Amino acid sequence: MIFIPFMQDKEIVVGSIPKHYPREYAFDFKTGEMTGLIVEGIDAVKVWIYKALKTSRYTYDIYSWDYGEELEELIGKGYEKGFIDSEVERIITDTLTIHPNISRCYNFDITFKDSHLTASFTVDTDFGEVDINV
Questions:
Q1: Which residue segments constitute the domains of the chain, with CATH numbers given?
Q2: Which of 6, 107, 108, 121 has its CA 20 to 30 A from that of 129?
């Protein structure tokens, strides 16, 4: 891990259990660019979700093998829709639930149109629910 003093995660204590309090660089989801600001809490989790789902697992040495998605493994295989739907749900859930503030992913709606796969789902975090569309 690179040491960046101003980006260290804070720990908050709930009862006697330390909890991870996320911080990320802010991301403008409309333009696809980083803004240079720092966000915390649920906004930081949203940025982390976006980055994790846009990063291929096992591709970049800077990330651990736990980080990133494996959806590209489904491309061009000719699997049936039911199998693809269940695999997309599993891969997304496995990708996101490694984050200490994410407890589950549910309410998946997966569509496949003209070789484009779209998934909408809800993520439960320690800070509330987040609706995601990818």
A1: 5-133 (3.10.450)
A2: 6
